[in-house]
């Protein structure tokens, strides 16, 4: 007898047949005596279809109106899933974000949840109903429809679990858990039974697309027990995201390897090595609303220094343009970009207490003749930028070097 | 300087290109200094797509959840139209039924409007914005999404015009007005400049699909000036639906001819000719939620009588089944159905003051050898049931007989 929040992504509800399967799974939990709240995404492809439609009208769609349009994707799914449950004899009721209500700020297309009213959901749960909530959406104080940004349905799931003090938040997706790395790149990749929140945050932010990073932050903040599972397997316990570091002595130092092909590198060379130069370079980039990820500044020589950073690949041309417009001002010798790069990161809380992790990483790459272009470290991760063509090779040799292919 | 409510149907907003054209038309009215409230339907085909999706889950979709699903069609259109207006530099804001709010009862899939809150719309109009409202939908007192039934967007338009005391409610459709009859059947059919509300009600209820009947009733009740126009013509004044009968002496006695191929006839013969028999026959039919249209009971002979009525063609098999289950109880000699029939009606307020209209109709049909199976009359219309195969012929000869092809 527990209260479980389950979130199903777009692939899991991609067809009427799959929605019926979700209903069957929900029915099994219900039959076990659990209370179930289900959060669903739009059917796969639907959000993109709606965005394309909007872009046929406006190249840069008005954010308020875009939210009105794209929030319909989840609204359709909640109705369909409620029907599927009723068809199997289980009472259910659907809720849009506004009906719950999930109150957000007014930052259309990337709103943040401010509060959740649990009254209606509680009443339905007490009446034995399954509660179905549209993910990804909310309503602001003026009653405008808002959306939480791509992947926001995970955040809805975690936020509902927090508001309802649920025993567990289960994120159903098309993979059966969190892996040591992408099995498409390394067939020996293993599923992790547990991963810490901090590791998951690093994995998520580094391009492991299992969970949206905000939902992981949210779960950490509100102590929500989070589990990633496959919606296409009958059983399987998935990967549990834990708060405590594993006390298992045998736990490997590195838990996983994440990678990302979606960044590009910018080099700004020969800028004066003086205070404020980083701001002069990155200020205009931030003003242009371009996300900067890794930032490296080399030690200067002869009064000048070189400055490198990464941006989303799509934003490379725009970034170069922005920088060229301030090139004279920042007195840079050259500005160049490279989008044939990738980022590879090893992640693990064990790094805190183990030395030599970085040198093992660098040696392993060197032995394969892979040149490292940039390095960035945090307490529990080391990221490197290398030539895109080495991605698969680098991930495979690192996976082996850190013993991730061995059953623990 | 007037306040105009414009309603655009599914065909008028069927593609992004057409939505842009609607925005252009709205912009023209705005440029003339008018305040404009726009009501839109779902893009053509969208409601059917959503209903099919629902039926893949549940053969008889749960009404509450069906409304959650199908209301998204209009929600997408309001966002797109608001964007199209903003793209042409006109400030606009979209509203779902719930956001307005349009309060309805809780009769899902066929809700009735109870009240409309005009506060937000007024504020937007005062701020110079075009207000865009999703047709066909509302919200009940508990916050559940409701829909008004097929064609409900017309009703939304008229209801908003009434609530806002608009100067005119313009219904844009794919025809340029109300015709004396369907031009596809009679090429000589003429567009009417005006038609009375009563005539329009008869025309609408008899299968002339220009306007939804409830919206006409609503307009009559709240004295809303209603005009039917084409969304595909630049100019054109359409057909105005008036409250006063035309004082024009030359106005023909018959204003138009409506027809309907969607009914079937049921014959119940040899039932005891005693009080209560009509209720015993039609009670079970009503209980089965089957709409009955024309009802004829012949004068009885030898203590028994024959009873005929029409139902929607789709409901014929079900009606027969219902009646067979009570055949012994009502002591009927036979129960039979015929779905190869059609209904043809002549409509006109002039009938009130003119005699001989019925005999002209019957003579005209007789001259063509068309047998009349049933007759039903009201103050301003005469309907007959004839063999389906005579439909086009009957409409054509009646159109000519009543001088409807002559320019007035």
Query: Helix tally of chain A?
Result: 13
Q: Give the oligomeric state.
A: homodimer
Strand fraction of chain A: 25-35%
Q: State the name of the first-level CATH class of the domain at 3-174 in chain A.
A: Alpha Beta
Q: Give the strand tally of chain A.
A: 20
**General form of chain A:** globular
Given helix and strand content, the structural type of chain A is alpha/beta
Computed over alpha carbons, the radius of gyration of chain A is: 23 Å
**Mean pLDDT rating of chain A:** 90
Enzyme class (chains A, B): transferase
Pfam families (chains A, B): AA_kinase, ACT, ACT_9
Keywords (chains A, B): Amino-acid biosynthesis, ATP-binding, Kinase, Lysine biosynthesis, Nucleotide-binding, Transferase
EC number (chains A, B): 2.7.2.4
What would a concise description of this structure say?
2 copies of one chain form a homodimer. Chain A has 408 residues and is of the alpha/beta class.
What does this structure look like?
2 copies of one chain form a homodimer. The first copy, chain A, contains 13 helices and 20 strands. With 408 residues, chain A is α/β, with parallel strands linked by helices. Chain A has helices at residues 16-31, 46-57, 63-87, 97-100, 119-126, 152-163, 197-205, 213-221, 277-287, 316-325, 327-330, 357-367, 391-401, and strands at residues 3-8, 35-40, 92-95, 102-104, 113-116, 130-134, 137-139, 145-147, 168-173, 194-196, 226-230, 239-242, 256-260, 263-272, 295-297, 304-312, 334-338, 341-347, 372-378, 381-387. The model of chain A has no long low-confidence stretch (mean pLDDT 90). The first copy, chain A, has a domain at 3-174: 3-Layer(aba) Sandwich (Carbamate kinase), CATH 3.40.1160. Chain A starts with a strand and ends in a 7-residue tail after the last helix. In chain A, helix 2 packs antiparallel against helix 3. Chain A has an 8-stranded mixed beta sheet with strand order 3-6-2-1-9-11-12-10, sandwiched between helices. Chain A has a 4-stranded antiparallel beta sheet with strand order 13-18-20-19, with helices on both faces. Chain A has a 4-stranded antiparallel beta sheet with strand order 15-16-14-17, with helices on one face. At the A-B interface, helix 1, helix 2 and helix 3 of A face helix 1, helix 2 and helix 3 of B.
């Amino acid at each position: 007898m527990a209260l479980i929040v389950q979130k199903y992504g777009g692939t899991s509800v991609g067809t009427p047949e799959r929605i019926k399967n979700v209903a069957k799974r929900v029915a099994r939990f219900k039959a076990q005596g659990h209370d179930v709240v289900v959060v669903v995404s739009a059917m796969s492809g639907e959000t993109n279809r709606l965005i394309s439609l909007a872009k046929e009208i406006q190249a840069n769609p008005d954010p308020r109106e875009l939210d009105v349009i794209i929030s319909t994707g989840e609204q359709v799914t909640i109705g369909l899933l409620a029907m599927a449950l009723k068809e199997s004899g289980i009472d259910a009721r659907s809720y849009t974000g506004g009906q719950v209500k999930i109150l957000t700020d007014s930052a259309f297309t990337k709103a943040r949840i401010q509060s959740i009213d649990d009254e209606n959901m509680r009443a339905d749960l007490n009446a034995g109903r399954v509660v179905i909530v549209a993910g990804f959406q909310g309503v602001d104080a003026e009653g405008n429809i808002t959306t939480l940004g791509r992947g926001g349905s995970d955040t809805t799931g975690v936020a509902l679990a927090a508001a309802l003090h649920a025993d567990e938040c289960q994120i159903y997706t098309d993979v059966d858990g969190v892996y040591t790395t992408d099995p498409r790149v390394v067939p020996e990749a293993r599923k992790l039974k547990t991963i810490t929140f901090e590791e998951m945050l690093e994995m998520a932010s580094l391009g492991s697309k299992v969970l949206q990073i905000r939902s992981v932050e949210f779960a950490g903040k509100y102590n929500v027990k989070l589990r990633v599972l496959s919606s296409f397997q009958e059983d399987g316990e998935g990967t549990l995201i834990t708060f405590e570091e594993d006390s298992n002595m045998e736990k490997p130092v590195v838990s996983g390897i994440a990678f990302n092909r979606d960044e590009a590198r910018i080099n700004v060379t020969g800028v004066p090595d003086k205070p404020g130069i980083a701001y002069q370079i990155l200020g205009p980039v931030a003003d242009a609303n371009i996300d900067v990820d890794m930032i490296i500044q080399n030690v200067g020589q002869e009064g000048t220094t070189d400055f490198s950073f990464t941006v989303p690949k799509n934003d490379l041309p725009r970034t170069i343009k922005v920088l060229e417009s301030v090139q004279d001002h920042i007195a840079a010798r050259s500005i160049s970009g490279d989008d044939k790069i990738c980022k590879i990161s090893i992640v693990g809380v064990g790094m805190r207490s183990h030395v030599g992790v970085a040198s093992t990483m660098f040696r392993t790459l060197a032995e394969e003749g892979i040149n490292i272009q940039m390095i960035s470290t945090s307490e529990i991760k080391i990221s490197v930028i290398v030539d895109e063509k080495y991605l698969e090779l680098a991930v495979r040799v690192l996976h082996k070097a850190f013993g991730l292919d061995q059953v623990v």
